[in-house]
Design a protein that fits this description.
The structure holds two protein chains of two kinds.
Chain A: H1 5-29, H2 33-42, E1 52-56, E2 69-75, H3 77-86, E3 89-96, E4 99-106, H4 112-119, E5 127-130
Parallel strand pairs in A: 1-4
Antiparallel strand pairs in A: 1-2, 2-5, 3-4
Chain B: H1 2-29, H2 34-64, E1 76-83, H3 88-100, E2 104-111, H4 118-129, E3 132-135, H5 142-150, E4 159-163, E5 168-169, H6 173-178, E6 186-195, H7 202-223, E7 235-239, H8 240-251, E8 254-255, E9 258-259, H9 264-274, E10 278-289, H10 295-323, H11 325-335, H12 338-341, H13 343-355, H14 357-375, H15 377-382, H16 387-410, H17 423-435
Parallel strand pairs in B: 1-2, 1-4, 2-3, 6-10
Antiparallel strand pairs in B: 4-7, 5-10, 6-7, 8-9
The chains are: A alpha+beta, B alpha/beta.
Chain lengths: 144, 436
Amino acid sequence: MVFRRTTWLVAVPMLLAFTAFAYLSVAGTTQSQSDALAEAIAKEPMLRTSAEFVAFANDGAAASSFKRTQRVCAISRRQVRRLQRKYDVDVIRMRVGGRRVKVYLVHDVDSDAEIRRTLHIQHKRCKLVHRGQIYFLPFSPQLS
Amino acid sequence: MYRGKVQGGLYGLVIALLGGSFGLFLWALLRAPIEIWDLLAVGILGLMVVHTWYIFGLLLFGQVRRRTYPEYAEERIAVLVPCFNEDWPLLERSLDSVADARGNKEIVIIDDGSTNGVGQSLVAWTEQHGATLYSLSQNRGKREALHHAVKRLSDDVQFVVTIDSDTVLDRNALVRIVEPLKVSGIAASTGDVRLLNERDNLLTHVVGAYYWVGLNIYKLAQSAIGSVVCCSGCLAAYRADVLIGLIDEFHAQRFLGRACTHSEDRHLTNLVLRGGGDVVYVPLAVAHTETPDRLGAFVRQQTRWKRGFIRESIYTLTHAWRHKRMLFAQVLLWDLPEPFLTFGLRLAVVGLLVTDPHFFLIAILPSWILVSAVRNVFLVVASPKRIPGLLGYMLLYESLLYWLNIWALFTVRNSGWLTRGAEGVEQRLQASSAVI
């Protein structure tokens, strides 16, 4: 079997494109969750020294290894207590713009509307955080 | 003894790898730091990219530096045809193709204890064609049959070709497959196997794509460095001196304390590679065979092959670092670990299919197809009529065949052929091993 030149003319660019795609996926994925949140919080217009922050996933698939969409909102201490009564909440501390802030990570959120009702922020715009997402399946059938 | 212990240790490591991948899946369920999960996916992707470059590179290397072989000059070839309970019309078609094939040949048929009455037809055929027939009293499997025949080879035989009892040879298959063996350093070769029943149904169409990729991408790539990992039982050739030198060891193979029966072609190739001999693929040596046309039979065949794949990949790791370092790296970093490393991720995908089928359909499935298309782009361009078959194989593999790897890992010592009438072979072999 000798592959024609046209086969190589297709194969080589596809290999290069695949490599570039993989590189971008890796570069995106290796951004840590803290970095992504900090970046979003820094851009949050309501940033105040006293604010607490909450990050929650509202795509119904927070546990999925492939989706990383979260929202970040500035909230008050009272709202934090409401969250802690209803949800499983983790806290991470980070430094944003020279200030130390706390971010409450809320797990198992059934819907965006539900957590907004809990926090009484139905109409508030929350910052979307997109982290590197692996939109690929790193599998290949065994053919050898 | 030493090699047996190393194999046992490597087998344990593969189990640990699978356990680690599964553990990660469970940890993710318990909300592990998500970065760890990412790291695994990214690591596998990285390995896949490197492996794709490796395969493409080997194909390019093989194409740029094409090997030419001396012409066949009537050297003596022994063609070994082991058979067991094969239907006579199929067997006759196969034997006739051998008789019609070019080459100075001696046809040796080994009837491995057939009980379907094919014996008389075999006697008549061998008398008519001046062939040699060994009739074994009991069915003991192909490995035993080959051992029996090789121990009795004539002194003037220079090359030995082995075929299956349903293989139909092209007229030039024998001379083409032995020509590489005239080159110093090449000890074994295998040919292009095409399916007689590729168009019979959806399954055979899918298997046709699987064969095409296996031969024209992977075997061709491995051939560039003289490291084809399996000389297919359908059509394989060996230098007689090499084969005679290793046939006893081949016959006595044990894995984790049990005698081995199936995947003998893969082990024979492994022994040749261990001796430092090159093993090449010869696309011009063409044979035809039939693939199972029912899913149950195909799954049984694949289970057997996957057990052989695990056992022989482990065996390769015990020797390839000496003479075949690229093969060693290939088996160590991709071939053997990949199915087990991805276990946790695959479980996650099954979960995703249930919890978020929409996302699976719009994001995962297209990327999955894209990755397969890139890795098998040579089929896409050179044989586009097989693209549906490739997609079908991909779906069949992910939904069913992949999981056989896990089953095969835990039943790797099982020597059963899972085919009709062969159940007793294992028992007889284990019994005879115990006596020895």
